[in-house]
Amino acid sequence: MKNRFLTLLILFSFIACKDVSKQHKTEVNTRGTIAEKAMVVSARKEASEIGVQILKLGGNAFDAMMATEMALAVTYPYAGNLGGGGFLVFRLADGTKGALDYREKAPLASTKNMYLDDNGNVIKNLSTVGSMAIGVPGTIAGIFEAQQKYGKLDVKTVLKPVIELANNGFVVTKRQAKRFAAYDSIFNAVNKKQILFNKSIKAGDTIRNKALAHTLQRISDHGRNEFYSGKTAETLVSFLQSEGSIITLEDLKKYEAKWRNPVTFEYDDLTITSMSPPSSGGICLGQIMKMIEPFDLNDYGHNALKTIQVIIEAEKRAYADRSYYLGDPDFVDIPTETLLSDVYLQDRMNNFSFEKPTPSDDLSHGNIVGYESDETTHYSIVDQFGNAIAVTTTLNGAYGSKLYAEELGFFLNNEMDDFSSKPGEPNYFGLIGAEANSIAPEKRMLSSMTPTIVEKEGELYMTVGTPGGSTIITSVLQTILNVHEFGLTMQNAVDAPRFHHQWLPDEIRMEPNGFDDKLIKELEALGYTINLKRSPVIGKVDGILILDNGTLEGGADHRGDDTAVGF
Ligand code: DON
């Protein structure tokens, strides 16, 4: 695990996993796919189509969620999953809002220093690749919890087309074939043999995943507990333990998805509802938006120098707070109210200046008196009944831990890397954590996933989200601003070039080819460090916007194979 070959492979594979699709600047503000009544936007056409099929059968957004999520597990094993976890934010037609947390958990046998060697140094790759990287999966618990509480159809009807898809197969896209080839050597290194997805697969080939079809059939027949205590659970645990994992049957039996109060805040005439901890998404998005609200971004212009400065400086401050204060709310006290309060956030921006950057080293987290505590996919659905959901789900890295349960037909996550293995030590996404996000048995690792629903004057306006690790929050932010401040269509809002700052490292990441050299030079002259290489793409946003005439506009990010389907 520690050898250099594997390290290089992993590095290469993380780089290769980014789609280096050509960036372009938004020239014409054209609309995306339009639908009258209902829409699903996801990372794969087949998954969006199956979601719509379920809606047409009389199902609602929660039925479509179960079908879309499982169809992504079939067609988009890069991030779609049974072996991972996620978050759902919803708004019912009557305006009720809520959130479901089906994030993975640390196994019972995990320990705070499990990724450190005898000298207290982080052991490379242990939390990112292979069996020790895996958190207890939450996805099946999540889709069942949501569907059983709010869905209308029976599970068998919902899963039927997905099982057919797994049996009959899906056609590999060009992007997908490239990825399978790029990951082939790491799949072989981790699994010690060829798996279903390998470099001999070409664009246009059909992949049938019979093992996954059988797993889904058993889940359809026996329900949620098939995954957590039935035959599937036993097969999974015996496989995991043979690979050296510390996950036990008891871990699976104890797993529960949890309903959470989402984070809600106002920005101009918008009400924004997003994911609460254990995701940092809602709080960070809220902090950034509240910090930038007093500035006239619309006047400065889209991706203009002053707009970028204001956003970047707010992002730095929010990510510094994230690293110190945020973690699983079942384990740490989070001062949510203060973190989102006007007084606190005005104070955080007190030292902001257009003249020069605030160095990240001078920033740290804000002081809160009395506080004593010490690769992903998103889909958006609006149904014909007026319910809206935003769901982000993940295995963490591309194909998660790369460990593939052949008999069951799915990859296992590497979500344990989202914990802070050691205070101050960056994780794969370069995020620094502290005590609040340290490892403990049954604790949920902090996330950046930001499934978000926006209302305008009390009415549903947008559902949006994205993959992208630490860049998720800032990608969702820019998409909302692109529509609200700069008048972009939903499609152009998701396609527009993006930038990102996460406090540490102290640099602005920008998508290459998306920004003028002149602008970059101006930022550098002010003292900002620009990194055009770290992120060939930033986020891959999927969203739905409700237009003035009540129709729906899908925004399916051109950076991937994402597709909007509606009726
Ligand atoms: O929960 C999180 O924040 C990360 N595990 C998300 C990973 C991700 O978005 C990977 N996609 N590029």
TrEMBL record:
Its EC number is 2.3.2.2, 3.4.19.13. The keyword Acyltransferase applies. It catalyses: an N-terminal (5-L-glutamyl)-[peptide] + an alpha-amino acid = 5-L-glutamyl amino acid + an N-terminal L-alpha-aminoacyl-[peptide]; an S-substituted glutathione + H2O = an S-substituted L-cysteinylglycine + L-glutamate; glutathione + H2O = L-cysteinylglycine + L-glutamate. InterPro entries: GGT_bact (IPR051792), GGT_lsub (IPR043138), GGT_peptidase (IPR000101), GGT_ssub_C (IPR043137), Ntn_hydrolases_N (IPR029055). Signal peptide: none annotated. GO terms for molecular function: leukotriene C4 gamma-glutamyl transferase activity. Pfam families: G_glu_transpept. Keywords: Acyltransferase, Glutathione biosynthesis, Hydrolase, Transferase, Zymogen. PANTHER family: GLUTATHIONE HYDROLASE, GLUTATHIONE HYDROLASE PROENZYME. Belongs to the gamma-glutamyltransferase family. This is Glutathione hydrolase proenzyme.
